[in-house]
């Protein structure tokens, strides 16, 4: 039988898998942004200062970053399905409970919100390493850039879809209601995850042609069956190898730097639109959707363009680094907002900057390309730990900068400078991109 005939008969289950991962990741990011949308009303009702708000916004990332290595190790030990589904359910419960802040006698609202956002971060830790494992299992190398870009672009689509919804909920039903709505939606997503996500070798809908196509292209089709339950992949000596490798250290620094832009967007950006630009919370919710939509489009184009370059050049280094350079140069335009007065032009420039950030968001594709086969979850966990240290630093630093200056100008320069640091990390430190073999 000809190759063309086999290809025609191939099932396309992997596309449904990445679509479902995209939806779950959109909910994941919406849950992170709940307090950003509710923050202005909550701060007014609860009497929160900008510095207190900054600490509350950062609480998620403290736990999220610290739990990345344990989360990745759990994925490698017990498999993606059980750990990831449980994580969705747990973080959704903690999201729901944030709506009760200020109602419990003897517990301050600040302490309760910080603690619950900390617990949300703890529970979400396995999510992106889990996404990377799913992509490594379900996609050949030639499609991995696009697949990774799709789930990573959920961070933008999330605000396109959920920022207006959450803004409407806050406007019409109060800031507490947004936590109840998003917590309930997450619990439904956990049930759906258990129903639909399987390794390729266990999925009831895949046929042999698609399975062979994925495996022959480098897909790890039995990843959970190969590693889960062995308990011998995680050793501190292996972690040391991941931390001592120059290529990976450059990738880690690049992800930290690019996530400064991410965390500005999902924490302070709606508050910036309200306090600095004079929008009301409903207008801010819709205004935040425009840069998010451009970031989503840029993310998909960046992944597709990266895979196109890989097919044309055969070089992972060229394919992954070229979109990153173009995207980060565009993202530095965020600094221009310091000098712009018109609200519509600020939103336009932010949209261009986040379009560039989307194009450059190929870190998870790189992780799928370079992770040792035995440590796909752990490598993703270490990568995400470094990347999400930005979630600790960014909200707090911006809180202090805003409190000290009374404006967001220095905060925007702080964010833009990290776009240039991303370029330095990938082009000076990383070197050639290739899969790491454990010693």
TrEMBL record:
The chain crosses the membrane at residues 12-30, 50-67, 88-116, 149-170, 177-197, 256-274, 281-304, 324-340, 345-365, 385-404, 411-433. Belongs to the major facilitator superfamily. Phthalate permease family. Keywords: Cell membrane, Membrane, Transmembrane, Transmembrane helix. NCBIfam families: 2A0114. The keyword DNA repair does not apply. Gene3D superfamilies: MFS general substrate transporter like domains. It comes from Steroidobacter flavus. It is found in: Cell membrane. InterPro entries: MFS, MFS_dom, MFS_Na/Anion_cotransporter, MFS_trans_sf, Sugar_P_transporter. The lineage of its organism: Bacteria, Pseudomonadati, Pseudomonadota, Gammaproteobacteria, Steroidobacterales. The keyword Cell membrane applies. This is MFS transporter. CDD domains: MFS_ExuT_GudP_like. It comes from the Bacteria.
């Amino acid at each position: 039988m000809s190759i063309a005939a086999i290809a025609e008969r191939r099932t396309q289950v992997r596309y449904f898998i990445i679509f479902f991962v995209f939806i779950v990741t959109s909910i994941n990011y919406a849950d992170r942004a709940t307090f950003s949308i509710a923050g202005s009303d909550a701060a007014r009702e609860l009497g929160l200062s900008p510095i207190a708000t900054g600490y509350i916004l950062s609480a998620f990332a403290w736990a999220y970053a610290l739990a990345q290595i344990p989360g990745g190790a759990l994925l490698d030990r017990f498999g993606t399905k059980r750990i990831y589904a449980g994580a969705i359910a747990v973080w959704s419960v903690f999201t729901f409970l944030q709506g009760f802040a200020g109602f419990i006698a003897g517990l301050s609202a600040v302490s309760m919100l910080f603690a619950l956002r900390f617990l949300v971060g703890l529970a979400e830790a396995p999510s992106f390493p889990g996404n990377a494992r799913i992509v490594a299992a379900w996609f050949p190398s030639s499609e991995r850039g696009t697949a990774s870009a799709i789930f990573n672009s959920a961070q933008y689509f999330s605000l396109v879809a959920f920022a207006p919804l959450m803004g409407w909920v806050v406007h019409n039903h109060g800031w507490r209601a947004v936590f109840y709505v998003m917590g309930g939606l997450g619990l439904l997503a956990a049930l759906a995850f258990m129903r639909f996500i399987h390794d390729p070798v266990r999925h009831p809908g895949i046929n042999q042609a698609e399975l062979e196509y994925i495996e022959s292209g480098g897909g790890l089709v039995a990843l959970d069956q190969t590693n889960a339950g062995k308990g011998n992949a995680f050793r501190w000596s292996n972690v040391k190898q991941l931390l001592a490798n120059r290529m990976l250290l450059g990738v880690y620094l690049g992800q930290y730097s690019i996530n400064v832009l991410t965390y500005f967007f999902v924490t302070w950006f709606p508050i910036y639109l309200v306090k600095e630009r004079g929008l009301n919370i409903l207008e801010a919710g819709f205004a935040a959707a425009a840069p998010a939509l451009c970031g989503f489009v840029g993310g998909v184009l960046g992944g597709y363009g990266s895979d196109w370059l890989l097919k044309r050049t055969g070089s992972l280094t060229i394919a992954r680094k070229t979109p990153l350079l173009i995207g980060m140069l565009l993202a530095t335009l965020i600094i221009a907002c310091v000098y712009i007065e018109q609200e519509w032009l600020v939103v336009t420039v932010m949209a261009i900057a986040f379009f560039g950030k989307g194009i450059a968001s190929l870190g998870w594709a790189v992780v799928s390309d370079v992770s040792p086969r035995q440590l796909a979850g752990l490598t993703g966990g270490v990568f995400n730990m470094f990347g999400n240290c930005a979630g600790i630093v960014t909200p707090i630093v911006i809180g202090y900068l805003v409190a000290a200056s009374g404006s967001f100008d220095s905060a925007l320069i702080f964010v833009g400078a990290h776009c240039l640091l991303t370029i330095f990390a990938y082009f000076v430190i990383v070197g050639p991109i290739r899969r790491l073999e454990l010693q």
